[in-house]
Amino acid sequence: MKNPICLENEISQHNVTSFLIQGLTDIPELQIPIFVIFLLVFLIILIGNLTIFIVIMGDSNLHTPMYLFLMNLSLIDISNTSNIIPKLLNVMLTQNKAISFAGCIAQMYIFTSLTCTEILLLGAMAYDRYLAICHPLHYFILMSLRQTAALAVTAWTVGFLDTTGHASLISGLSFCASHRVDHIFCDVNPLLKISCSNTFNVEILSIVEGAILAFPTFLFTLISYIFIISNILKIKTTEGRRKAFSTCASHLTCVTVFYVTVMGLYMRPTSSYQPKQDKYFALLFIVLVPMLNPIIYSLKNQDVKDALMKLRTKMTC
To answer: Rounded to the nearest 5 degrees, what angle is found at the Cα of 84, between the Cα atoms of 266 and 287?
Structure first.
C-alpha cells in the first residue's frame, strides 16, 4: 500500500489547475509606478504597430514585398505584447497572480509560436533586401507578390506548427514542487524549472528545433547581410552607398537586438536559468523589440511618412 504522503503528491502532480505569476517585484510601493510605465509602453507599442499596419494595408503604393513583410512583423508585435502585457498589468494592479493551467500553456504556446514566426520572417526580409540590393534588375521576378505571400504564409504556418511539440510535452509534465512561476509570464524555462518530471525530452526537442530551424535561419540571415554590406561597399557614389546602407543598417539593428535577446533567453540549458536575469532579457524582448520595429523600419522611411500624411489628410477632410 502506498504511503499517504506519496499518494497525495502523486495526485497533486496531475491535478494542477493554476499557476502563480511572480511578476517583476513584490514591493508594494513600486507596483503602481511600474504599472503606469508598462501601460504607457503597451499603448505606444499598440499605436505604433497598428498605425504601420493600417498605413501599409491602406496605401497601394506600399504593396511591395518589403512593406508587406513589415506589415506581418507589426502584426506579430501586436499579438506578442497583447498576449503577455495585459496579464502582467493585471498582476501589478490587482496582485491577483493566478493564471489557469490552460491559460499558462496557451500563453507559452502563442509566445513561442510568434517568436519562431518572427525568426522565419526576419530571414525572409533579409533575403528580400539581398535581392533588392544585390540583384536589382531581377528583383521583381525573383520576389513577386505571390512569392512574398507564400513566404509570409510559410513563416506563420511553420511557426505555429513547430511549437506544438513543446506545448504538448510541457502540458503533460508534473508540477508537484511549486506552482509559482518566477517570471513575468509563462515561458518554457520557468515552467521546466518548477516541474518535478524528467524534462529531458523537452530539452532535446528544443535543441533539435534550434538546430533545424533557428540556427540555419540565423545563419542565412547573417550571410544575406554580409553579401548586402559587401555589395554596398562596391557602390561608387557616396550618396548611393549612404542611401543603401541606411536601409540595411536599420534592418540589421532590429535583427541584432532580436537575436541577442533570443540567445540570452534560450541558447543555454534549463539548469542555468536565473530568474532575475531572464526577466530583464524577456523585458527587452517583449518591450524593446516591438517599440523599435515601427521606429527603425518604417517611421524613418520617406514612403511611410508620405503615406501617413495622405492618411492624415483623408482623416482631416
So the answer is: 70
